[in-house]
Amino acid sequence: MGLRIFKGLETDNAYLELKTSLANNESVIIVGDCEVEYYGRASSTLTRGERVVMIKQDGSILVHRPEGYEPVNWQPPGCLFKVDSLNGLLKIVATRLSPHEVLTISFHKVYVMVCGRLYDKGIFSMHASEDEMKEAIRLNPSLIEEGLRILTSEKDLGEAGYADFVGEDSKGNFVVIEIKREVAGEEEVLQLARYVNEAKQRVNRPVRGVLVAPSLRRRGQVLLEQLKLEFKALTPESCKRFLKKVPRLSLLEFME
Amino acid sequence: MGLRIFKGLETDNAYLELKTSLANNESVIIVGDCEVEYYGRASSTLTRGERVVMIKQDGSILVHRPEGYEPVNWQPPGCLFKVDSLNGLLKIVATRLSPHEVLTISFHKVYVMVCGRLYDKGIFSMHASEDEMKEAIRLNPSLIEEGLRILTSEKDLGEAGYADFVGEDSKGNFVVIEIKREVAGEEEVLQLARYVNEAKQRVNRPVRGVLVAPSLRRRGQVLLEQLKLEFKALTPESCKRFLKKVPRLSLLEFME
DNA sequence: GCCTAGGTCCCGTGT
DNA sequence: ACACGGGGCCTAGGC
User: Fold this and answer.
1) How far is A69 from chain B (nearest CA, A)?
2) pLDDT number for residue B226
3) Which residue is nearest to nucleotide D9 (CA to C1')?
4) For residue A22, what are the contacts with CB-CB under 8 A and spacing of at least 6?
5) Where are the beta strands (DSSP E) in chain B?
6) Which of chain A's residues have a Cβ under 8 Å away from the Cβ of B219?
7) What confidence score (pLDDT) does residue B130 get?
8) What are the mean pLDDT values of chain A's consecutive 10-residue runs (256 residues total)?
9) Nucleotides of C under 7 A from a protein CB
10) What is the pLDDT of residues B24-37, one digit of tens each?
11) Average predicted confidence (pLDDT) for chain B
12) Is A120's CB within 8 Å of B7's CB?
């Protein structure tokens, strides 16, 4: 690791180092006293204060205040950087082309600057998402109801969108299934209703619609009853527990 | 500024410094080689790689890979930290109480560590959001239609939620107005429909519903027609241009 | 480019 | 605590 670390740099020296770093596509962290302006979909100003600015190798940039999860200002990956040194200020202009947005950071003081390429080939894997619920249901449709058979996943229903699953119940009814990892509401019921209506026009037999989620909000319950749809409570945790018990294909194999 | 900066610390020394920093409620930035685990609403693992970890004064923590706008793992403000040094590893455990979630970061190597309190009393101000559209419309309802009068803003419509505005047109009809800063869709039409239905039960005269947004998606258009609601195209930019021309009260004065 | 759908979304606000 | 609405949301996938 060849990180270059600078303490208490004058802004004009910081400018030179930063220019080199950006030319070499390095990551840069700057801690210092700055002000920030943004113009684009919205616009904002932030007066002077001490912050952490992170520039990443993919052309993203974040301005972090000493509190809060979110960056106060930022630019997503792929933006263009221009740096300048004038009147004792280190100026960083990060421009995004589409939509056209400009972020300008002006450092009055640079306390610390860390420059260097970071090597990260680590593998990130996530679990207990909607995908895991889908896999569990595919392997064991009786998690939703006894006798259910899954026919297709991610069924294209044209204008209506994509149903998570379509299947068939023990009585031969067509079943459209929409799965949510979290508590569902009106929006999710409406989504299912679209799929069911579309399916009714395509299938020459009774069509049921089942919303699968950990729970359903009051408004969603009202709409669900009006539209004569059904709800089945199921949590990602219970799906995960089920998957643990079953020797199974990997998610990747499932996807192909 | 009294930032403490450490290069190439052994993990056990990093542990001691980090413990002191957290006890003093300082911000900490660590650049190093680490692995990460998360368990909570979902769960994830991330194998070894070089990353930037930021701990903030409000108890939030972010793990940033060298690419991407978003942190790969994180914990929002208010979490509890526990640090440990064992087997040559610096271990940081950040726990959130509700929902119960645990983030564990294990550093194999610490390249740089920066510790210190940051002072940021800067003032952040945002413009051209939905609020600015509302203010422009309030000052000049004819941006929506000639002869419109605004009666109240944020009218409480009980179960149905809050309409952005209610007003009265030149023919004495009651008008419910929903404003969106961005392209609107089905969801926004549905929201307006709720407000209109609620208003109809409360007002003893014809009720119109107008959705105001830069544009309306196809699906939204269909639903809008079905529900006999109306759409008026208006962009935040045009509202901003209007506001610039008018000497006006501040947003704060408007809010009271 | 637009549109759809999801997220450990986060965040404020109100009940 | 839950629910609802908003965000410069961001991100990924399809067309």
Assistant:
1) 5
2) 86
3) A70
4) A28, A55, A81, A83
5) 4-7, 27-39, 43-55, 61-64, 73-75, 80-86, 89-96, 101-116, 124-127, 149-156, 162-168, 174-179, 207-213, 230-233
6) 159
7) 77
8) 93 98 97 97 95 98 98 97 96 96 98 98 89 86 93 81 91 94 88 90 93 89 90 87 65 40
9) 1, 3-11, 15
10) 999 999 999 999 99
11) 89
12) no
Domains of chain B, start order:
4-116 (2.70.180.20), 130-255 (3.40.1350.10)
Q: Report whether A57 contacts A26 (CB < 8 A).
A: yes
Determine whether the distance from the CB of A95 to the nearest atom of strand D is below 7 Å: no
B252 or A59: which leads in pLDDT: A59
How far is residue A24 from each of residues A3, A13, A20, B180, measured CA to CA in Å? Answer: 13, 17, 6, 42
Task: List bases in chain D with any atom under 7 Å of a protein Cβ.
Answer: 1, 3-11, 15
How far is the alpha carbon of B91 from chain A, nearest alpha carbon, in Å? Answer: 18
Per-residue pLDDT band at B129 (split at 50, 70, 90): low
Q: Which residue has the tokens 């699953």?
A: A165
- Give bridge partners of residue A232 from the DSSP assignment: A212
Contact in structure between B208 and B175 (CB atoms under 8 Å): yes
CB contact under 8 A, B114 and A117: no
Chain A, window 85-104: residues with a beta carbon less than 8 angstroms from a chain B beta carbon: none
What is the pLDDT at residue B182? 87
pLDDT at position B44 is 95
For B127, the enclosing helix (H) or strand (E) is strand B124-127
Minimal Cα distance from B33: which residue of A? A120
Question: Which residue of chain B has the CA closest to A189?
Answer: B187
In angstroms, rounded to a whole number, what is the distance separating the alpha carbons of residues B4 and B19? 13
In contact, B44 and B138? CB cutoff 8 Å? no
Q: Which residues of chain A are within 8 Å of residue B44 when distances are taken between CB atoms?
A: 124-127
Considering only residues 219-238 of protein chain A, which place a Cβ less than 7 A from any atom of strand D?
219
**Which pLDDT score, from 0 to 100, does residue B250 have?**
46
- The pLDDT tens digits of the residues spanning A54-110 come to 999 999 999 999 999 999 999 999 999 999 999 999 999 999 999 999 999 999 999
Distance CA A30, CA A33 (A): 10
Residue B39 pLDDT more than 50?
A: yes
Beta bridge partners, A43, equal A39, B127
**Residue A147 CA, nucleotide D9 C1', distance (Å):** 42
